[in-house]
Amino acid sequence: MQIFVNTKFDFVKWRFHAVVFSLIWIVIGAVMFVKHGINWGIDFAGGANIVLRFKDKVPVDLLRGLLTDASIQQYGKAEDNAVLIRLPEQKKESDYAGNTVNRLNLALNPEAAGGKVDLNFRGRESVTDLLFQADPDHKGTGPDARKYYENVAQNIISKRSEVGLFRNMQQALSVNGVTTGIAGVLNGKTFLGSFNVLNQETVGPQVGRELQQKAIWAIVLSTLAMGAYLWIRFDIMFGAAAIVCIIHDVCMSLAFLGMINGEASLNIVAALLLIVGFSINDTVVMYDRVRENRRKIKTRMTFEEQLNLAMNQTLSRTILTSGSVVIVLIALILFGGKVIHEFAWILLIGVLAGTYSTITIVPAVAIFWNNVTGRAHDLSGPAVRARVEAPPPAAPPQRKRKVG
Amino acid sequence: MTRGIAWKIVLIVAVLIGFTVPIIPTKNTPEPIRRGLDLKGGTHLVMRVNVGDATRLEIDQAMEAIKTQSAKQSLPAPTVRRANDTAFLVVPPAGVSTAEYERVAKDYTPSFDLSHTAEGAVLFKMKPSAQAAIERDTIEHSVETIRNRVDALGVTEPLIAPESGNRIVIQLPGVDDPARVKDIIKTTAVLQFRLVEGEPSTDPKTIMQSVPPNMQNDVDVLPGNDEDALGRVTGVKYFAVRKSVPVTGTDLKNARVQKGRLGEPTVGFSLTPDGGRKFGDLTGANVKRRLAIVLDNKVVSAPVINSQINDQGVIEGSFTTQQAADLALVLRSGSLPASLTTLEERTVGPSLGRDSIHQGVLASLIGFIALILAVVLYYHGAGINAVLALLLNLVIILGMMAIFKATLTLPGIAGIILTLGMAVDSNVLVFERIREELREGKTVRASIENGFSRAFGTIIDTHMTTIISALFLFQFGTGPIKGFAVTLLIGLFASVFTAFFVSRVIFDLVYRPENRPTSISIG
Questions:
Q1: Fewer CB within 10 Å, N- or C-terminus of chain B?
Q2: Given its phi and psi angles, is residue A251 left (phi above 0), alpha (psi -120 to 50 degrees) or beta?
Q3: CA pair distance A63, A66, nearest whole angstrom
Q4: Which range of residues forms the domain containing residue A62?
Q5: Chain A: closest CA distance from residue B437 (Å)
Q6: What domains, with CATH codes, occur in chain B?
């Protein structure tokens, strides 16, 4: 199958429209950022995220009463009975999420205060300790006895990870190794707490600030490094065009983040860094072709014509490569789950922006540069090549002919 | 030519086998590729070691030494007070020269610089080298203690590593009760045996009335539990305990959970020979007095000494089974030299990790299959070539990860898929070039030849730019993102290899020059 054969699109004609479109897009994003404020995730702002799964319906009102400064929202589908609790930043370093979970545990599971072990919250070691102390199967106090009870405890906790959390005691008692004696101890000295921690994160104010600085530096430095590499490999004009192109792609993705009011997290920074490296590929391929053509072409040709020619020659590859990455990213968006959802979206926008900027923004910058530097990149053909030194006439930017 | 291609095939097969073997699960390595905390569940902690605790302790000891030495040499007692976290002042009483105290201090404060203040006092400032040594020792000792505790908890493959800025990074894969683990890690566990003066009281203000006047400057008031006759906690009670600490946790040899008289959990301990001697002297000389067992500046219990005790004892308190087990554990693993502050925690519960890996693998598989279909549809025969190169690429990435014990994270799975996208790109660049050459009327062989050689520079450039950003990603990233950068880097190198070497060999095999091929299946 061949789709783009010998195309002769006049890409450079559209560059001003494209610049306007990009600016509008970015301005909309910026306005959204101003309107909602930047939604700094806890990675940068500090604070805590806690995701809890409840045995029954989430006691939202109770949670709101206990955690007055938290934002509480449903996590996943309603029947998952899961909730995301977002705690705002704090001034002092502490085990923020952990302390909050402990507080909730005390408030929602009064049985724990009586010394009973919460089978939905505690782990293998706690259950082992309990069984080993009670010793219902009369195994003694040696290391073998501990091993014996540890195995049972491990089975119970593995079962819990499998089902999410126990909804009734029968689930816990039906696992391998639970004898009548052990069941008796579990029935008497354990209970099923109302929730289980899916995920908890604390980022202290100090780490948040550091991550923020590191993220900004990483993006700025990698952009500059990329420009420098392309300057060395090609020329300064292209280095500059590449930097503008990267800034454009990153801004387009960020604007999208603003439009969906997405959270600025470490994953988003990773996506942006990746866009910096990946979206420039199309541009490299295209410009590589410009350079190659310049060595071969012996006739007169304006710089605009050279760009159009190279873009048409590499169009098939551009569409195909971007297309294959887009296929993969769409699969990640549709099936990858909540954790990488926004990450995949930002990458998708970045990849699309990268392809689009290669045929619009990069030519715009390169042509502008060519114009202000006296059209040094026009090919004047063999006969008149000596005249390049002379100051050329101030050419209108759109001067061009159809590429043949 | 035939021989040239033969060794290339041997090399490719060798690579294939070399990277497949490490990813086959065996009995010793049931999980050849290590899963990150986000896929496996577990806890990632960044703690700050408050080394100030350790320097303050050093200063306290130096201050104490000057006081006791001055008394021994019958000098009038100087006023000694702390100036800041790393310095203290010795103010001599009126009429006594500072030189006397400097002489006394010389042998006991080698790690301090002395200077005179305008008020005629001596300022003892800790030397920077001594301070650095204390910091280093404190961090090392903390790492070791935490490792002991984590090992005692049976966490498999933990990572405990010091970081710049007095920090310790702790990674505990597969932890099922992060709350308890954190408690155990963070407990300072400084155990002290100190004599009680006067009578305990529920009011901290009135307690001094029962302390003999000559002891009043030598006691600390510490809180403890007030219990009723049945041992239930009813409130807070305060104890005046002597400042001197004759026996500490370092004198302990072992500690374990025992059953008390009523079956309640207690912690039994045994002492080292040296500690036993000290404990014997202490208890022997103070029969019928109260001895406070102080843990992290709280009185756990203060039993009356009934007779001399030499080598073992029992700590009773109102413990639950778990509290007793935890106390025994931290006493066995030794105390932390300084307190810890949590700077960052990321915990993923095991069931969320399970969901994540299912979704990640599913999404990747779907993406991968769609990619293969697209490439084969577009390039026909040559597309199959690209798919083979892709599969080998995947094997190399996974094999490399197994060999270098790199960690597979959820973003890492996305990284692999993206790398495969890059690998497709390399093939596409070559194939498009071959098509162009064909359109210009070149022969099949010449088109293949030119296609590969002309695309080479471009492919190197596109890979270099992505490698640059992956390096920044690695430098910047923590945890899962670092894992992502690693998979990306490995994949990029693999992609160059498969695109240039493997794909080329397959072309050369299918379209042998001696057969003079006239057509090529490239869509």
A1: N
A2: alpha
A3: 5
A4: 47-202
A5: 12
A6: 2-39+349-515 (1.20.1640.10), 51-131 (3.90.1070), 188-336 (3.30.1360.200)
* A337·B356 Cβ contact <8 A: yes
pTM of the model: 0.79
Q: ipTM score of the complex?
A: 0.78
Q: What is the pLDDT of residues B271-295, one digit of tens each?
A: 999 889 989 998 998 888 989 989 8
Which of the listed ranges A17-31, A186-200, B192-206, B228-242 does the model predict with the highest average pLDDT?
A17-31
Residue A402 confidence (pLDDT): 43
> If DSSP states are collapsed to H, E and C, what string results for B416-479?
HHHHHHHHHHHHHHHHHHHHHHHHCCCCHHHHHHHHHHHHHHHHHHHHHHHHHHHHHHHHHCCH
The pLDDT of B420-428, averaged and rounded, is: 83
Specify whether A193 is located in the same domain as A60: yes
Contact call for A122 and B180, based on CB within 8 A: yes
| Inter-chain residue contact A285 with B321, CB threshold 8 Å | no
Binned at pLDDT 50, 70 and 90, residue A37 comes out as confident
A386 assigned to some structural domain: no
Residue B321 contacts residue B257 (beta carbons within 8 Å):
yes
pLDDT recorded at residue A400:
44
Mutate which of B233, B256, B342, B376 to disrupt the A interface (most A C-beta within 10 Å)? B342
B-chain CB neighbours of A354 within 8 Å are: none
Q: Is the pLDDT of residue B105 over 50?
A: yes
**Average pLDDT for A233-252:** 90
Determine the residue type at B19. F
Q: How many CB pairs under 8 A join A and B?
A: 260
The span from the CA of A220 to the CA of A377, in Å, is 29
Touching check for A288 and chain B: CB below 8 Å?
Answer: yes
How many whole angstroms separate alpha carbon A247 and alpha carbon A233? 20
Domain shared by A76 and A197, yes or no? yes
Between chains, do B178 and A197 touch, taking CB under 8 Å as contact? Answer: yes
**Residue B17, min C-alpha distance to chain A (Å):** 28
Pairing, β B112-116 against β B159-163: unpaired
Q: CATH number, domain at A238? A: 1.20.1640.10
Report CB contact under 8 Å: A225, B523. no
Min Cα–Cα distance to chain B from A207, Å: 7
CA distance B226 to B299: 10
The answer to whether A332 contacts B341, with C-beta atoms less than 8 Å apart, is no
Residues A287 and A340 in one domain: yes
* In the block, residue with structure tokens 């009185």: B299
Number of domains within chain A: 2
Nearest to A335 among B41, B363, B371 (CB): B363
